[in-house]
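Our consortium's second objective concerns turning raw sequence data into structural hypotheses that experimental partners can test. To show how far this objective has progressed, the report includes one record in full. It was chosen at random from the queue rather than selected for favorable results. The single chain below, 297 residues long, was entered without modification.
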Amino acid sequence: MTMLQHGPSKRIVKLAVRLSWPVIVVAKKWSSLPVLKWFINPFFAYPFNEVTTIPINQEVTQPDNVVVPRRVVERLVSEVRDIFILDECMCRSQMGCKNYPRTIGCMALGPAISRMHPSHGHRATRDEAVEHVRKAAEAGLVANVAHVWIDPVAFGLTRFRELMFICFCDDCCCLYRTHMQKRGPNLDRAYKGLPGISVQVDPEKCEACGTCVEQCFVAAMELREGSAVPGPSCKACGRCVDVCPEGAVSLQIHDEDGLYEQLVGQSKELADVWGHLLQKGLASPGCRPFPNEEAQG
């Protein structure tokens, strides 16, 4: 009965990940090569591959001293009724990661999680989801809001339109963030920064050491006239902020509500994980309010 009610168990999914991993890595590496890219790029095409990065690990604050990127993700999960937290990161487990905790897994959102096999983790409350985001941020992980065809295939979830993942990724083991420097056009379009977040470099502090250039996972930073400069393909993930030894790089956010609306707008184009609960970005009935909302009440 379990086989009919649910998708494959963790053991089967981990085996599938192990077998498919080399193929996916090679496809990413070859996605920019002549001729081959025309065969590979359709597998990374919109609307079946869409990843939006949110730097929840960065201390970008507004006057109320709340970390804005993290709260945007907290607001998102507080709007959703159906939440499943995976108790293990498939990527870090596959790679035997020693830099980040393997026990901080993805979150699956939307009605499609009803088929998620219980061996992967558990259905969670909104408060549990918010706490999970906090743990990921404190571990230095980056949130990626993902609507990617490989997820429902791997977990046996049949309603792709009613599914979205939030993955908490690193730069050493994550399948989304590795092997991206020489990517094909569809892969580049699939991985997006969130409009409303930008990377700024202070030329007075920058020593042009090149650390950010070497560490950028999409090769979007370059040195120009004695200073680092983010290019048009920058995803504003915040990695350069972490690694800059001079503290010359920062993230800029001007409008939290606008940022949140853009995230929801992008997500709603691809997936319906909220149902009747989402009403123009307002908190759903029963959701715990955020600190500034309590103060205003």
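The partners drew two points from this record. The domain at 197-253 is CATH 3.30.70.20 (Alpha-Beta Plaits). DSSP finds twelve helices and eleven strands in the chain. Both points have been shared with the crystallography group to help prioritize constructs.
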